[in-house]
Amino acid sequence: MTQEEKARKNAALAIVIPCYNEEEVLPETIKQMSRLLDDMRESGLIDDGSGVWFVDDGSSDKTWDLITEATINNKYINGIKLSRNKGHQNALLAGLETAEGDVLISVDADLQDDITVMKQMMTQYHAGYDVVYGVRKARELDTRFKRITAEGYYRVIQKLGVDVVFNHADFRLMSRRAIEALKQHEEVNLFLRGMVPAIGFPSTNVEYDRAERFAGESKYPLKKMLALAADGVTSFSALPLRFIALLGLFIFLFSFGFSTWVLWVRLFTDNAIPGWASSVLPMYFLGGIQLLSIGVLGEYVAKTYMETKKRPRYIIDKTILNKESGFKTMPAGSIEIDKVSS
Ligand code: UDP
Ligand code: MG
């Protein structure tokens, strides 16, 4: 065994779970996670110091209380509380940047993803992969609408030149060096599904069936989903901008031909020039295209604006580190809560 293989075999795993108003599923998630960690330790897949990092994304229900309680009663559990709701991608990044461990796996709190697949992910990590993507086998349980729009979206975004893994959400394993590479990305508009493939490093997929949410409701309403979808395109592809230019060229060529025809009719025939429709319709048509194009430009300008401000992507309110799980250093900018006195 080489030095590296040995290090990979003795890796501490940190599971990172963003939670937004998840009081209904958390007790079950905590139970299943600890069982899985026990199991993986027994079978030698992970080492001491493995644990779970829950990131409370500014929940307004009992989520943080449940996490705090778990850190006291359960040796695996650590908690990070964000100062306010920042959205799934930011919460996930907060967890990935804060959690310690030689290898990290991110997963949703609602147990929709088959968490036992983490064993296969670890096996792939031992085999030398730095990134392991969890890929959904089928989407039978999704609504027709969600399935068609989601799969259509993956296709479109791939056509636009964005490197994403088909049917992979944010259930993935990343090695320490992949995490360090991710940390070098300073963008504010986060689309982790696009950023991770852009890092490089050896990667592979494991497939799994996705279940229904264990309890509670989706925290991804259509509005948030559309925002994420737009981020995926505009953060990784400038094709929409180029498309505007192409559209302009196309319309220019068309109007050139059209004008030639109008001139020809005027000069060489006796036909009256068609009046109203032919002047009003292009007006609306061009007006519409212009507004749409300005809108697309605006999207990119807005993105640039947000990026130049370089505001923090999340602010940590407090962190509870479970000493028993072996994590001793404090992440920068966080406060350690004394478990006994709080
Ligand atoms: N989530 C979050 N912040 C938000 C919205 C969602 O941290 O603002 C978390 C949520 O708690 C869950 C994960 O992101 O762990 C995925 O959300 P959800 O399961 O509701 O999305 P869906 O599976 O319905 O797309
Ligand atoms: Mg879900």
Write structural notes for this entry:
Helix content is 48%, strand content 14%. The chain is of the alpha/beta class and 342 residues long. The chain folds into two domains: 3-220 and 312-337, Spore Coat Polysaccharide Biosynthesis Protein SpsA, Chain A, CATH 3.90.550.10; 239-309. The radius of gyration is 26 Å and the shape is elongated. Bound molecules: uridine-5'-diphosphate (UDP) and magnesium ion.
Count of runs of 4 or more consecutive helical residues:
11
Helix content: 40-55%
Strand content: 5-15%
Q: Which strand order do you get reading across the main beta sheet?
A: 7-5-6-4-1-2-3-8
Number of DSSP E strands: 8
Provide a short characterization of the protein structure:
With 342 residues, the protein is an alpha/beta fold. It has eleven helices and eight strands. The protein has two domains: 3-220 and 312-337, Alpha-Beta Complex (Spore Coat Polysaccharide Biosynthesis Protein SpsA, Chain A), CATH 3.90.550.10; 239-309.
